[in-house]
Design a protein that fits this description.
There is one protein chain. This protein has helices at about 5-15, 25-35, 40-50, 70, 75-80, 105-125, 125-135, 140-145, and strands at about 55, 65. It has about 140 residues and is mainly alpha-helical. The chain has one domain: Arc Repressor Mutant, subunit A, CATH 1.10.10. The protein is about 55% helix and about 5% strand. The radius of gyration is 17 Å and the shape is elongated. A hairpin with a 5-residue loop joins strand 1 (about 55) and strand 2 (about 65). It has a two-stranded antiparallel sheet. It has 8 helices and 2 strands; from the N terminus they run αααββααααα.
């Protein structure tokens, strides 16, 4: 459903969320830890900086990081920067006309799930998602691999 760009972005942002606010990481460092192609991730991280989802500082002590304000953004904000959010409106089976009045065969099964997922992606902050994942899985390392 999501592009590699969105998946990599979410993983990188959750990685940054798991670190101290004063920690700075280069795109190369993040890429090595997350096992993501560095040039691809570097472009993606720069786009997130341009869209004010994450922050960066140039120079020898620079790198990518999350401010308190960044941590209040949602996962949906990340997806909006890196993906076509209109895909969330598309039919699960790819039909051109699919809605409550003209549903596909799985519309009534998929629609409530989609609504719940989008609501969670829009309302949960990066901090909340990071903490929730850490609480449920005891380690963000799983998302890094």
């Amino acid at each position: 459903m999501l592009t590699k760009s969105s998946k990599y972005s979410i993983r990188a942002v959750l990685f940054l969320a798991s670190k101290e606010k004063t920690d700075r990481f280069s795109a190369k460092e993040i890429a090595e830890i997350l096992k993501i192609p560095a040039p691809f991730l570097a472009k993606t991280l720069q786009e997130l900086v341009r869209k004010t989802i994450i922050s960066s500082i140039k120079g020898p002590n620079g790198g990518f990081f999350l401010t308190d304000k960044d941590r209040e953004k949602s996962i949906f904000d990340i997806i909006k920067c890196t993906d076509d959010i209109n895909k969330f409106d598309n039919c699960f089976l790819g039909q051109n006309e699919c809605n409550d009045e003209n549903p596909c065969v799985v519309h009534h099964l998929y629609s409530p799930f989609k609504v719940k997922l989008i609501k969670k992606l829009k309302t949960k902050t990066i901090t909340e998602m990071s903490e929730e994942y850490l609480r449920d899985n005891k380690s963000l390392k799983k998302i890094w691999m």
